[in-house]
Amino acid sequence: MSSFMSGKRGLIMGVANNHSIAWGIAKTLAEHGAELAFTYQGDALRKRVEPLAASLGSKLVLPCDVEDVATVDALFAALKDAWGKLDFVVHAIGFSDKNELKGLYADTTRENFSRTMVISCFSFTEVAKRAAAMMPDGGSLVTLTYGGSTRVMPNYNVMGVAKAALEASVRYLAGDFGPQGIRVNALSPGPVRTLAGAGITDARLMFNYQKRHAPLRRTVSIDEIGGSALYLLSDLSSGVTGEIHYVDSGYNIISMPAPDALKT
Ligand code: NAD
User: Fold this and answer.
1) Which of 158, 142, 143, 151 is CA-nearest to residue 206?
2) What mean pLDDT is reported for the chain?
């Protein structure tokens, strides 16, 4: 353990269990000395998040369902009471009706389009605005996106559209908050086996395809995503904002799979 992040306090949103990307990030930050607060979505997840948070010595574990803005306000009021200031936020939240994470994007319903956008995209803007108000000395915000935002990924459908809007939000928020020394970036990991990931039809196929065809010929671990988050949330990346940083074994650079990969 280093003390690289010691003295920094941050909020982790989006832990569902110990396979969550947010958990990989939290572990890495704690290993480097950061003090963390966690949110959970509903009582069912509270039982999972509380012991995980406790294992990292975190005492602040707060409810937040981003569909209900009152819970977002209550969260930041509680953080202000407890800490006064904030150094960083990790937003690792996404949701869409899994019945629409299959088949044609064109069949997305108006209702699920709106719900997906609010939870997976707009919540980051609402969180960023409240977090920035608690960052008088500057800070760093990171959200999680996926390459289905810029390329057509079968079954990813409306999530891809929401991630495209989320990435645009990263750039606009970076523009808004840059003058205050607050940086806003996104990590774009390759497929990881998580609860949210499993909601996408043929997720296993996508996982295995990227594993075979990515330049590194493997997928990434949540600890590796944690390492990239540590960079974006720490002063190491003090000159970086508005970026979408891929952590995908290089899959995003591929046009056609290499001949050897096609044979496997
Ligand atoms: P996960 O299921 O472990 O985490 C998703 C989290 O979103 C859960 O903690 C859930 O409680 C939270 N959430 C959903 N709706 C919410 C709401 N209304 N209010 C508050 N929280 C809510 O899955 P994950 O894969 O770790 O997902 C984290 C992020 O990473 C998501 O944005 C996802 O799109 C993104 N991502 C995942 C992958 C992957 O392959 N798993 C790849 C790239 C990006």
Assistant:
1) 151
2) 96
Give the tens place of pLDDT for each residue, 36-73.
Answer: 999 999 999 999 999 999 999 999 999 999 999 999 99
Q: Which of 20, 52, 121, when mutated, tests ligand 1's pocket best, judged by the most ligand atoms within 8 Å of its CB? A: 20
- For residues 80 and 173, what is the distance between their CA atoms, to the nearest angstrom? 21
Ligand 1 atom closest to 67 (CA): 18
pLDDT-above-70 percentage for the chain: 99
Q: Which residues are catalytic?
A: 146, 156
CA-to-CA distance for 83 and 79, rounded, in angstroms? Answer: 6
Q: In sequence order, what E strands does the chain have?
A: 9-13, 35-40, 60-63, 88-91, 139-144, 182-189, 244-247
In this prediction, residue 1 has a pLDDT band, given cuts at 50, 70 and 90, of low
The domains found in the chain, sorted by start residue, are 9-251 (3.40.50.720)
Ligand 1 centre to CA of 143 (Å) is: 10
pLDDT recorded at residue 259: 83
Residue 239 in tokens: 């000159």
**Ligand 1 pocket, residues with Cβ under 6 angstroms:** 14-16, 20-22, 41, 45, 64-67, 92-95, 119, 144, 146, 189, 191-192, 194-197
Compute the CA torsion angle 11, 13, 18, 24 (nearest 10 deg). -60
